[in-house]
Amino acid sequence: xxxxxxxxxxxxxxxxxxxxxxxxxxxxxxxxxxxxxxxxxxxxxxxxxxxxxxxxxxxxxxxxxxxxxxxxxxxxxxxxxxxxxxxxxxxxxxxxxxxxxxxxxxxxxxxxxxxxxxxxxxxxxxxxxxxxxxxxxxxxxxxxxxxxxxxxxxxxxxxxxxxxxxxxxxxxxxxxxxxxxxxxxxxxxxxxxxxxxxxxxxxxxxxxxxxxxxxxxxxxxxxxxxxxxxxxxxxxxxxxxxxxxxxxxxxxxxxxxxxxxxxxxxxxxxxxxxxxxxxxxxxxxxxxxxxxxxxxxxxxxxxxxxxxxxxxxxxxxxxxxxxxxxxxxxxxxxxxxxxxxxxxxxxxxxxxxxxxxxxxxxxxxxxxxxxxxxxxxxxxxxxxxxxxxxxxxxxxxxxxxxxxxxxxxxxxxxxxxxxxxxxxxxxxxxxxxxxxxxxxxxxxxxxxxxxxxxxxxxxxxxxxxxxxxxxxxxxxxxxxxxxxxxxxxxxxxxxxxxxxxxxxxxxxxxxxxxxxxxxxxxxxxxxxxxxxxxxxxxxxxxxxxxxxxxxxxxxxxxxxxxxxxxxxxxxxxxxxxxxxxxxxxxxxxxxxxxxxxxxxxxxxxxxxxxxxxxxxxxxxxxxxxxxxxxxxxxxxxxxxxxxxxxxxxxxxxxxxxxxxxxxxxxxxxxxxxxxxxxxxxxxxxxxxxxxxxxxxxxxxxxxxxxxxxxxxxxxxxxxxxxxxxxxxxxxxxxxxxxxxxxxxxxxxxxxxxxxxxxxxxxxxxxxxxxxxxxxxxxxxxxxxxxxxxxxxxxxxxxxxxx
Length: 802
What we know:
Elements: E1 29-38, E2 49-53, E3 58-62, E4 68-75, E5 77-84, E6 91-98, E7 104-110, E8 119-122, E9 134-137, H1 139-144, H2 152-155, E10 162-164, E11 172-174, E12 182-186, E13 189-191, E14 195-196, E15 214-215, E16 225-228, E17 242-246, E18 257-263, E19 266-276, E20 281-290, H3 291-297, E21 305-319, E22 323-338, E23 353-371, E24 376-395, E25 411-430, E26 435-455, H4 459-464, E27 467-489, E28 492-503, E29 510-523, E30 526-537, H5 541-545, E31 548-549, E32 554-555, E33 565-577, E34 582-599, H6 615-619, E35 624-644, E36 647-661, E37 667-669, E38 676-690, E39 693-706, E40 710-711, H7 716-722, E41 734-735, E42 739-751, E43 756-764, E44 772-778, E45 783-788, E46 793-801
Parallel strand pairs: 1-7, 6-8, 12-17
Antiparallel strand pairs: 1-4, 2-3, 2-5, 5-6, 9-16, 10-11, 12-13, 14-15, 16-17, 18-19, 18-46, 19-20, 20-21, 21-22, 22-23, 23-24, 24-25, 25-26, 26-27, 27-28, 28-29, 29-30, 30-33, 31-32, 33-34, 34-35, 35-36, 36-37, 36-38, 38-39, 39-42, 40-41, 42-43, 43-46, 44-45
């Protein structure tokens, strides 16, 4: 089903411009404040030097005994912040935007050390033990980059080695891996799929475990977010491909602020402010309702389809005497409803059916951190999350949602639920300026359920094809970890650690995983990195449950004994910094996957490496065994110029090869083997002063050229006999055409004394390129037909901060 939001247009523009500022006019200004902390113990750093600067001038200050700094009146514009403290590595915080409608509150964390070269980060990113394959994402970038749908996952497609599998969704193939290998984290804990419309862009309109039309968590609430693509540190487990590590930002603890946003994505309102000013506690709440849902209330549909979603999120922050407590929650629901068309109006096989899809997701919990003296830090997180998807399909003559009696088919109903409840207990200890320890334990209660019903006519067929699959799984997932970091010299950083992955569903699901990484700074502006990790991941619930039953017979296919899928991952990198805001990074990687679930049947080519929408496997389950392998190799290059002097640029390129082998041991191209991807993202701003207000124009564009993914060949004759798509094999031997897309974003900001407004227009696929998605057999047309990615779509949005 298509995830559609708007109407068409195209614009792409880059030029140099130097704004003339009227010094005699009182310009809009705002407060810039924050804290400087020790990155490992959260201890405030007094007398740290803080310098806020733009292209014209610098504003120096120092932190007080609580590590707090404050600029009471900074003119609206773009800045960067340099922070230095004796005995610590310096840090430059880039891409700070000061707007009149919202205070800029910054938290800077410094690592102990004497390294001369300043580390450049974007706002709020906390240093950790990952020395390779890590990118940062901020809400400001999400609002600035083209075609993000205000979604961090879509922004990640600008990074090297990351390719989206469909324009309609945010299922990300990272370094040739299936999107199912990507995990989402919130408050340092893994959560279930946090996306609306998880069936968007799939072959059979069925849900995926890790993606969807748009992320439930609005960019209004997002804090610093990391995206990791390989050789993860010991604190990251149960993942093979990547990690979207999100956090929630704290609300303003000094004054009340509001944000209202309306566009073709939806209506979005947020409020934040102090709960108790003296204690520094705050609240942040956001509600969003889809624009397509509002149109649906008026009877307007898109291609005969009604699409809607809504979500609510809240974050409460309570500083304590020696620590901090946060309470948070998020919940969202989404649906799309396609109504069957009259016989004379049908153009495709889908028009014969009424199809309904509903999804609900929620997550919530708390985090608490506390200093246990000058060297110890304790952190506790308790997070629970759940996701339920239901899909029904019935012929035109049946009412939507009506369950037919036998003989009234064909009727389909699929339902799955995933849930996790995790307790994280973590301790950090800094022995001295050169070394520190980190240890912790994730304890997760893991739940999965599935029910697949099929009913066909005539009656006797109904009896043989009623309930296809049903099952429920409960288990514990236990993940201890430990990491030791040592700096023998100021220019050398070493990490050595272990991660355990123990799944109690069966005796085959245990893994003890070494993690090693090193960084060597060979000069003032260059460094080499090397990382190795053994990683593992539990299977999707449908693979464990897979069993087939019906009313007259039962064919049990029991895969509960499947073990973890594992992978060795090696990454070598080189980084050269041209300046504080410009760098070139190159990484080469090799990933060897093993113990992959593959078909146990003679000649079977099914491999979990190629799995995307897991409900497809539920309809035709197979006996599986951990005998498959995979290998992903590649080279990535990233040139990044952070936003400074009114422009930014991100150029990424990757060449890679992704293959799999089944029980026969023959290496074949995997489903996600596009072989190459190139992205160019950039933009420029122009500022002017009129009548005491600051006006800013921004022009941004993104160009993507990537190799096409692969598809399975279709047996047209067999499909015609079966009146549904019948594949000639499971070997993904069909190479789709190369993919090209141009996206444009134009915005205008007006900053007044106490508020700011932004009007933006995104043009997705601005050249209206026709990119292949997949092929299916259409029973109404009686032939195989190609399906395409989305065409030209405009996305208009208005944002008001006050």
